[in-house]
Amino acid sequence: MKLEKVTKMPETPSVRSYDDACGAAHALDLVGERWALLVIRELMFGPKRFSDLRSDLPGVSANVLTQRLEKLREIGVLTRRKLPPPAASQVYELTPWGYEIEPVFSVLGRWAARSPLHDPTLPLSAASLMLSFKTMFDPDRANSLETRVGFRIGEETFLVRIEGGKCDAARAALDGAEVIFTGAAQVIAAAVYGGVPLETLEADGALSVAGDHALAEKFVTYFPLPPKVGG
Amino acid sequence: MKLEKVTKMPETPSVRSYDDACGAAHALDLVGERWALLVIRELMFGPKRFSDLRSDLPGVSANVLTQRLEKLREIGVLTRRKLPPPAASQVYELTPWGYEIEPVFSVLGRWAARSPLHDPTLPLSAASLMLSFKTMFDPDRANSLETRVGFRIGEETFLVRIEGGKCDAARAALDGAEVIFTGAAQVIAAAVYGGVPLETLEADGALSVAGDHALAEKFVTYFPLPPKVGG
DNA sequence: CGGCATCCGGGAAGATACTG
DNA sequence: CAGTATCTTCCCGGATGCCG
Questions:
Q1: Which nucleotide is nearest to A32 (CA to C1')?
Q2: Which residues of B fall within a CB distance of 8 Å from A114?
């Protein structure tokens, strides 16, 4: 049995680095590979299982997801944890430093929203929608209103708190929500960013609004998209 | 002359998009390819020629640079312009929207600077150094000092203005600078971020400081790096 | 179900050489 | 100087299969 192919000798484990002291360049070395940032985005509101990530990131293949999770774990962005029995499955969770990447999504999102090529009607994950609320919230529109708005998207529930001119979102029970939206993230985005009237979506059965309906009508106006370039 | 290879039928022009309404995902569709963000970084302080970009981005190959510039031009991030004679060469320049991406470098840089794997002693472009000043400036350290510090890095000169608790940097003539650093960006980074004494670098002949030397000593302390994770 | 290993096809990235 | 052209290498994405 002799070596039949001496094609490669991976002494250098293909570390395709930018070799650049610039912080942004190093960030790209860390999370610049395809899908890496979106994996982190999906974990911004708490731990998820491998399968959750796969279904929330349609398009990523299992092996690529495995590679990204492994690298992100190695560099300290996330950890793998085994849930206590009976649900003895594994989950991936961001480290404190991993959570600190959140402003990247805000500035990237704000910048790209001005692109003429941006299509806000494409599919959207629940995490993306919640991040978009934190990114696009306009305190002037909310005019010092303080409230809690609940969302039921698939299996998950989120609570969006508007208070003190800030807008925060978190995975949480819906206790104390003055109004609750139930529907797909893409449908809620159509109401908030697409200007589709709530009643239209409710008539379609795509969305259900429970509680303070007048508040719901106001809420969807609090997140203006920036003007497109050249517009 | 017949077709010798009917290998591919690029009906789908390899639009490897994330198909995701999330703004950050769209940003990655726009500038998520390898080298794209670094090309933009090099243009943050004004137009450059193709060859300038090549030499400021060691590691990018000519064909990849061509592809990136072409795509960035198509999507409206930059334009190609022909300089008036006699220097009738072409330059690439960011559009107003292109310049708006700057906060991305700040948040990426700030986040990645906390990585244990970040090596601030690697090579550095002049644009990266100037961006790092805007990113890492600490108004408390400057303590309401107002000054102008000049830099001569290769063929370029930059003026860093500290005033009103802000730190701005621009490609400009060095008129009015109270002190002028002359040397490679990497050397200046060693002084500012590596804690290497100015006199050491000057003794090596790697750096020259002209003007208010006491101000230079203070200046290099105004840009503290964030603590590494787990440190 | 959850995760990893492997193979394969296509395409993007990297290196080099060459042209206007 | 400003890019092409070509070739090789490697990464991405899909499919399959193994193993707990």
A1: D11
A2: 97, 100
Which chain A residues touch B75 with a CB distance below 8 Å?
115, 117
Short-list B81, B98, B101, CA closest to B90: B81
| Domain boundaries for CATH 1.10.10.10 within chain B | 23-100
pLDDT bucket at A218, cuts 50 / 70 / 90: very high
Looking at residue B82, its pLDDT comes to 86
Q: How far apart are the C-alpha atoms of B124 and A142, rounded to whole Å?
A: 44
User: Which residues, other chains included, contact A85 with Cβ-Cβ below 8 Å and sequence gap of 6+?
Assistant: none
**For the domain with range B121-219, which CATH number is right: 1.10.730.10, 2.60.40.2700, 3.40.50.10300, 3.30.1050.10?**
3.30.1050.10
Residue A148 has pLDDT above 70, yes or no: yes
Looking at chain A, which residues constitute the CATH 3.30.1050.10 domain(s)? 121-219
d(CA A226, CA A171): 27
pLDDT band at B68 (very low <50, low <70, confident <90, very high): very high
Q: Which nucleotides of C are covered by protein (CB under 7 A)?
A: 1-7, 10-17
Q: Is the pLDDT of residue B12 over 80?
A: no
Cis ω before A86 (30° cut-off from 0): yes
Q: What is the distance in angstroms between the Cα of B31 and the nearest Cα belonging to chain A?
A: 10
- Give the model confidence (pLDDT) of B104-159 as tens digits: 999 999 999 999 999 999 999 999 999 999 999 999 999 999 999 999 999 999 99
Residue position matching structure tokens 């998209």: A225
Strand C-proximal protein residues, Cβ less than 7 Å: A 16, 49-51, 62-63, 66, 69-70, 80, 89-91; B 7-8, 10, 14, 16, 33-35, 59-64, 67
Class level of CATH domain B23-100: mainly alpha
Task: For residue range B187-227, list pLDDT tens digits in order.
Answer: 999 999 999 999 999 999 999 999 999 999 999 999 999 99
Question: What letter does residue B194 receive in the DSSP assignment?
Answer: S
pTM over 0.70: yes
Structure tokens at B136: 């890492």
Locate tokens 């390898």: which residue? B34
Closest CA to C17 C1' — which residue? B62
